[in-house]
Amino acid sequence: MKFLLLPLILFIGCFRLTAQNQYNNFSTMSQKIDALGKEYPSSCTVKSIVKTAGGKDIWVISIGNDDKDNKPGIAVFGGVEGNHILGKELALGFAGSLLKESKSPEIKGLLDKITFYVFPDVSPDATEQFFSDLKYERMVNARSTDNDRDFVTDEDPYEDLNKDGLITLIRVKDPSGQYTESKEDKRVMVKADLSDGQAGGYLVYSEGVDNDKDGSFNEDGEGGVDFNRNFTYNYEAYGLNAGLYPVSEAETKAVADFLFDKFNIYAVFTFGPQDNLGQPWKFSDRSYSDRRITSIMKTDEPVNKMVSDKYHEITGAKGAPVAKTSPGNFMEWAYYHYGRYSFGTPAWWFPLEKGKNEEVAFLKFAEKNKMNDVFVPWTEIKHPDFPDKKTEVGGIKPFAMINPPADTLGDLITKNYKFITAIALMHPELEFLDLKTENAGENVFRITLKVHNRGLFATCAEIGEDNDWTRIMRISLVPGNGQSFLSGKKVQMINRLEGDQSAEFSWLISGKGSLKLTAGALNTGTINSTIELK
Amino acid sequence: MKNIFSFIILTSFLLLPASVLNAQNEELFFGAAGSPANPKVVATWNKYYTYAGVIDLCKKLAKAYPDLVTMESAGKSYQGRDIIVLTITDKKVQSPDTKPGFWIDGNIHSIELQGTEMALYTAWYLCEMYTQNAFIKQLLKDKTFYISPTINPDAREYFTSVGVPPRSGLVPRDNDRDGLIDEDGYDDLNNDKNISQMRRKNPNGEYKSDPKDPRRMIRVEPGEKGEYELLGYEGIDNDGDGLINEDGPGGYDGNRDWGFNWEPNYVQNGADKYPFSFPENQAIRDFTLKHRNITGAQSFHNSGGLILRGPSIKGGGAEAYSRSDDEVINTIGKKGEEMIPGYKLVTIWKDMYTVYGGELDWWHGEMGCFVWSNELWNSYLMFYDTTNTDPYEFDKLLLFEDAFIPWQKVTHPVYGEIEVGGFSKNFGRLHPGFLLESDAHRNAAFCIYNAYQSPKLEISDIKVKKLPGGLKEVSATIENKRMIPTHSASNMKFKIDPPDYVYLDGGNVIAGMIVLNKDMNINQEQKKNPQRISILNIAGYQRVDLKWIVKDGNKFTIRAESVKGGRTSAQLE
User: Fold this and answer.
1) What is the pLDDT of residues B116-174, one digit of tens each?
2) Range of the domain at A441
3) Number of domains comprising chain A
4) Taking CB atoms and an 8 Å limit, are B265 and A246 in contact across chains?
5) What is the CATH number of the domain that holds A22?
6) Which of A:360-399 have CB within 8 Å of B?
7) B267 and B182 within one domain
8) Could you give the CA distance from residue A401 to residue B286 in angstroms, rounded to a whole number?
């Protein structure tokens, strides 16, 4: 046993000493998660909730003090979309930073009140492609599917024609091609603009051959279903990588089940392509002909705005990333169907001008920021599908536009960690105010009180108010022996309370003695008091 | 024939429990038209089967008709009961899963009991009529029926034994969102295994006894003194929260749980966390995904006397409809109105209400099938009269007050002295015994008609013509002899099933094509794999001409394979 412990201790040591300057593959991520569980046993538990089709664990790190599942909770997600490797590092880094500070008075106080559930990577089958010998932006898990619905599965993958370990683009000189070199940056291929007097001259495809000779290139490679297309909100039936039906995959179902079981979770943070931190969502008066809700609720809007302002203030992020929505995505699901506050950001982006080419803007940004390794220059190759035509491989390297260089990770982790902990301090929290007992004579007592939400967040997002999967707060007054209600009920519901809002209650009780008072729900925490009638 | 029959009886007699075989003494019966006078499996259709009764009858059919019936479990219910599927077809003619299939289920809503009897009757009728009726015999050679009598066995058991469950199954659910699960359901205050109404004497109440039939509560006129107030279904405030019966067993809707056009509970009441939250529906999903040959489906509900067709939401959501599909659905539905008097063909979203995530959407959108849902029983059936639909009168004259629980005094912990009574749980939405068989037969006949209209492919007009250079031209026609196409609009839009494939075996195929215009020689050539021509759809009663250019070969076989249209082949020497 001692023998086994030694390498472990060495490993932990080395994790603490190394600054974050590289992305972690599944194996090193799993080791780090395991090490966190072992180093902080009192405030951290590590669990695998399911294995994917590719046999990889979906890890959840639960961080909090004492009875974790019985106080307000926040879930933090990374790896929701397979090419966003940064999200994985930010979620893992958040857990690491939080635990490292877990003995400091400020964070200890926070962990006494709030539990964090951190999922560093929910698309491990896909994200691992970043670390493999053949790198391409993979979105899908390892379930074998028929992406192009030709009744053959996985029959037309990418091929690395120039043997550089990267899947980029091919361009073929062909008069029938509609692509041409961009005027702004010759490296970038764009659709020729007839109105500008341009004609094409190139065919452009992703790097590979047409294995099944159906005229499409690389349309049905290995896998699978995209985690970020498989949720119920705005799900696209038969959409690309959407799965056969919503929540069809082991990992989506396990994540949904975990979250639905945790009634204490009131907010979800997602590092991924969907954003409402760079640019908060806008309320729009919806038409009531359809019962579906598709824009943020009126009273949730100011909370989103406040959180977005904090995001800019704490992280120093400027502007907003390009708004990306997609059918069946996780972050919008967490708001619209899970009924919780949901915040998302890609956490890193480059400035973009409206109507301008994204790739051109990126190359300009890369040059300015001395990111030298982002482009594969066009190089001629032989292509079996175009034996007589000049064919070249080249283009922006996979992952480069979405994931920053590894040496920026440490800084991004720290900023995003500070942001989430600052927001967590605004959690809903109940207190009794103005608790009064009046003796009305003849052993009759009147009890009045207010239940006050002292947090800045509402006790439940407005979107969750009518959702069966959020709890309704209750207030109960349990009389002692010989006491009875002359007016009022033993148990009653408390309507949702906005930040800093109160609700008033009163009862008429006959008989002296003490009564037990309880108020709250899992998502707000429960407060107790004893009332003496004398 | 007679020898074979007596052999079957003899062997069955040796193998089977005696109860299966009350069916001998032929001299005691004279057959009525269209029914098995002397069935091998004796079953009566003027009562409801418990879950054990359903299993018993299914087992007897499987034992009595091993060449027709396969009984299997598609999976387990929440409480561990088997979800039975009977596959019924002539097993000696082709593999069951390559013939066009028709699906029937019942009882997804637990209080809608008689869907099970309709499904069971269909299974029983097909088996018992196979030897004596040429139409049924041919039908079982051509088609396969998949029949799941109850896809909600837990709540069926609950209904037929202890009480009245909700529409749902019995997966526990916190309906009042207080953190306690199923803590305040109905309570059978008078211990009669029925949950009926509560009333309390109250001179200020809004109800009084009907002078024509004192069992009935009627509203008083404005200004008139009342006698009673109505207090809802039998029950007490079990959890002391000031509400009665607000969180009973289950409490969701299994028919809002399917993976197509699904929406959450605040949009669609009864929906759970995500599609297929419940084990019963998961079992049916997995079974159906393995049986792509199913072309049509019927999911029985009650009540109202309706033949429901999709779409279930305006516009159909992701479902696709075409004009020709619509014509097929309406033609078959109208035929149903003719076959089942009193029933009306209606479109769910337009004529009833919007349903998200219903079972029908799954069948239509995800399986590419033609589907119906019959809402069984309506008040017209009481007196065959749409103007006289009085259940009290019917109960008195035809059921001799068997359906009514007389008002009885009980003491309620909150309400004090009250009375409990009203119609029993087997009346109102359920057929009375004597009308059950007749409606079962009509609904079974509608299912049979549906199955009959599923595609039947035939190859004809095979011709070989010599071409210059030692080549031959082989031509043939493939025809769908029935009303339903091999591919619905959804099926084509989403490529749910592969196209229909027609193979030419024999010779070396140089080219293959679909003939669009024979006279003008306009063809649609298939460059890739011409030996196997792909046809996207063969509509009802449509013919498709095909042509191949072939080198060598003298003997040619043309084979058609269609997932939903079945298989057929023809030869030419």
Assistant:
1) 999 999 999 999 999 999 999 999 999 999 999 999 999 999 999 877 777 899 999 99
2) 430-533
3) 3
4) no
5) 3.40.630.10
6) none
7) no
8) 41
